[in-house]
Amino acid sequence: MYVKYSTVTLDECEFTGNTLVLGYAAGLFVDDASDVTVIRTVFRDNVVNSGYGGAIVCNIGAVLELYGVGFSNNEVSEPLKVDSSVHNAFSYFCYTTACPEGEEPFLYDGCVPCTAGSFSDSTSTSPCTPCPEGTYSSATGAIECTGTCPPETPWSPEGTVVPRNCGEPQCAANKYWAESDQQCTSCPPHLETSRAGSMSIAGCFSIRASFFASSMRSERISAFNADESNYKAIADVSFPDGLTFISPTMLIVGNYDEILAFDAEGTPQGVFASLRNTGKAFGGLIYLPDLHLVGVAEWQVNIEVFFFDVHDFDGTPLGLGDVVARTSLPGFNTNPRYLSRGENPDELLATNINYADFGTVVVRFCIPTEATCNPAERNMVLVDGGSDIVGVEVLLEKGTFLVSNRLPSNPGNGRVWECPLDITTTMNIYSCALFAYQPEGDGWEWDPYQIHADDEKGVVYVGDHDYMKIHAFFFDGTYLGRVEEMEGNLGAPTDFTIYEGAFPPLSTLELPDSGVFEAGTDITAPLTLKNHRNVPIGDEYPARPGIYSIEATGLIPGTNYSSTITGSIEYKDDAPSSAALTASLNIPFVGDWTISLTGGNSNPQSFFGSPTTITVFPAPTDPASCTTTSPTVITAGSDFTATVSTFDAFLNPTSHAADTFSFALDDGRPPSSVVRAGTSASVVYSDTMTRAGSYELEVIFHDEEISVSPLNFDVLAAAPSAAASTASAGTTTSIESAVDTALQLQAFLHDEFGNEVFDAPGVVVNIQGLDPLDPAAVVEHVLEGPRYSHTVTVLQDLEATLTISFSLDGAPIGEPLEISVSPPPPPEDPFSANNVIFLAGVFFFGGLGIYYVYAHLTKTANDTSLKTKAKEVRANLFMIAVNVVDVLTDFLNWHITIARACAGLVNHLYLGFACASVVGMLIAVSVSVLQLLHLKSDADEIKTSEELEAEFIPLKARYKKVEAEAEAGGAQVQPVAGDAAAAAEDEDPVNALEKKLLARIERIHTDKTEVFQMQRDQKRTIAGVIQIIVEDTPITFINVLYMVYGCDLGVGAGEPLDTVEDENNCPPVQERVGSVFIFTTMLTVALATKKVVSFRGLGAMKRNRERLEREIKGMEEEAGGWLAELVRKRTGGEEPPAAETRAPESASAEAELRLAAGAEAELRLAADAAASLRAENEGLRRRNVGLAEEGGALRARLEEAEGRERRMIEEKEAAEAGRAELQRQADEEIRVLMAEMEAG
Q1: Which of 349, 781, 844, 912 sits at a 20 to 30 Å CA gap from 437?
Q2: What is the pLDDT of residues 1068-1103, one digit of tens each?
């Protein structure tokens, strides 16, 4: 009995009379990885003629337990001691000997040398290892295979003994020749399959692919999902049959009487073709890309194959009228099921169900659109005789075709047959070679249905209908396995096809090799889209970035919360489809992150190598993200410790070793630099603080202050120390015991570091000597914070020595203090008679001077000359000074007299009136300021015009000079008698008119000046009256009360303006001081009287001003007429009478006037000419503007005309080209006709 890889229990068995010619055990052989228990069993008469044991042999790795086992007459070649509880101790063997290198265990013989072609390089209980491919060993007992195949024949099978077995690489299936290692290497897991003899990893492939399957039973379309190794439903279809891709983006599926269209994601794209209401039904489909035709098996009515042109499909369903070709199939009453390519491009194969005798056939027929195929020669039944033939597929590489035979009479035992293509007569299916049968082994039933072949892979895929699987085979029939591990939503596959576009499980994401990234940086990785053959997709297959997604999953630092970060897929227009996509991610958190890249919306699948793990490390430390931990209050003498927790801009803890922080206290010391210790996530600053106060600690990182800086903290004083504290009883050692003399005592507590302490208990002061009756008596006072002070009132006229001592919790504070106390000397009179007389003189004469200056300026301000501006300025400035000094005098008077003598109502009244005087002062000052500001405009009102003043004032001066000279000349010519003297007295009328006009202008100017002064005096008078009301009257009233009552003010019962609180508030010395202000009161009365008198004259002043204004108006009109006449005379309107005896000087003056008049006329003519020129220039400008507008319109019309001309030329050229073409066509037709005529 042989047991291997099993667990067996034998109970009450008998092994008798077994003879083994050559082997291990005649009775029971327990081989590798077995666990056998034998109970109550007998082994007798078991013989091994040439072997290693008798009744039982146990191999390495096996476990054997014997309970109550008997042995009798069993032959063994050498005895072996075993447990005594077992009968016949020499009847079984288990070897466990560890053999040295170069040897291997050999049953109970112990160890034997490794045979040639194997080796053992260590002490082991395992058998020797065969020499690897490409090596050999001719010796026995080898510890290594020293022989290596030469480069020209680099390969040898495992266990090679001699070099003659070396040759060309002949790697087995699922391996490839690794040139770098010079040996056959297994294909990688994701490309697990290869054909035998593959010379590179390019020969490795995966049997997985982008399968799309239809299931009529499940009424759906499903797609293979490599992540779960099953199928996902992507669309529901009520009666799905054949399906195929007709473009990189369109899948069509037969659905009884219509063909539906979907994209590769299963999204409906409409109806490709419809035969509704015709009774026809679609079966298998085949797409012929070179002919852009879709072949459709119609199996319901006409029993024929239709062909549609895919170029005819524009989104509108194709119908029966759109069929470009149709054909019936050879055979009797056959109906087509599935279609396959033929041996030649112009023919197809089809499986047919024959309803007449319920047999099935495989037929070959020509594609009706292809003239190269002769139906009479090629159309025929290839195979007959099977039952329920379904799928058919041609293997062009082998010159055969495969047929699936379901065998409905024997369910689960279907077969796939391989038949030759070069059949000339119909062949029975059972004459074909068996390609596949129960591929998963005996007992594994299957139901082969549709078949598809991948020529490039050399793989055949067979759908297992009832058992819902898809199997893969090499072209030689070698079974490769199932495509999927579980069916998922596959259902019973009716048909399936493979999408040649991107297959995510073999497409790659090219992350940088390090796999380590900085937080917050963009991680970009190009994608390489590959199809199921591990080849980059062609440009005919769109990259479609919308169906791909990338995301990273990881834990948020410091938490157990998982976070998912979604990236983006970017598309590049200028790249091939296979390299057009780039994935981008930005992960702000540190740690290990799982990157998942999937493709597909309805059926997402991971890319090759996805998911993968990357590591994100912190970004540079960010000052704005750092946090601190520090106390806000410490005690002097203790350490202040600040811990800076460092983070990057994304709040990840950082531990960069190069980080250096600078800590600067605002105590004048230089900053301290602290370098991170190791890989700690924090930086610690510590400093011993001894000085109490409030501090700021600036934390600087790379010249930038962190966000929580500065750190504010307080250092409180430590416990007070008597030795460091001080006490004070003032700044003098002697005082006078006057009335209410107070002695201020204070202790100043400090800790050992010199910091002031404000809240300590136990501070006591003792005072000795305060009691004149008992000078030794001690008075104790407890001092409390924060000032620790006490005020001691010394008795009046006390004379003693005070001893003062301070203590803190019984410990003395400094040395005791001694203060000498003595009565005060008699008071001195601060106001002597000389001081009083001096002050009185200053105020009296000062006030008198102010009055006379004011009166003088008021009088001189009424000067009627034209140049009064300077005087008016001085008068206003002086009035401002007088008003300000007046108010200051009132406040000084209050401070020295009333404030000191009267504490009651009079004091408050005086202060209130003094404040009101400020209002009056401000009004008066504002009047003066306004008069100063408006002085220029007011002064201009007293002038007729700048021109008159400029002309007639010099003229007046010149006339005075002429008159003086004329008088002197007349005195010289007095001797001349007769008419000459009389003629000399005649005067030029122009001169007379000028003199009269000049006199009138002077009169107008004088009157205007007087009106100007009246207006300003009125304003000043009104401001003065306001001052009388709000200032002078109340202040004078209070001063009079003070002068009448003096220091008794407020004592009498009949005084309603004061209270009895003023009694004894005015010492005798104050009476003399108050008398000084009698003069001030008198001055105030005098000024007020002057203001009242001025106010009484306001009415008369107003009437005079109105009279003058009327006169001025009349004189101005009269002067205007004279001026017009004078101008007329000067310009020649009237010649003055001749004056034969005129003095030469008068003639000269007249000439000058005439020249001036001529110059004026010339100026006026020049002005008229200039005005005329300006008008002419404006006209020219307007004309230029008009011309410019007309030019623009002309240019527009010119451009329009040029455009019409160009169009006419182009039309002419086109017409000429048309005529030439017509002529050429006519010539060609004539030539053809001539040729036909000649041929006829």
Answers
A1: 349
A2: 444 544 555 565 666 666 666 766 766 667 777 778
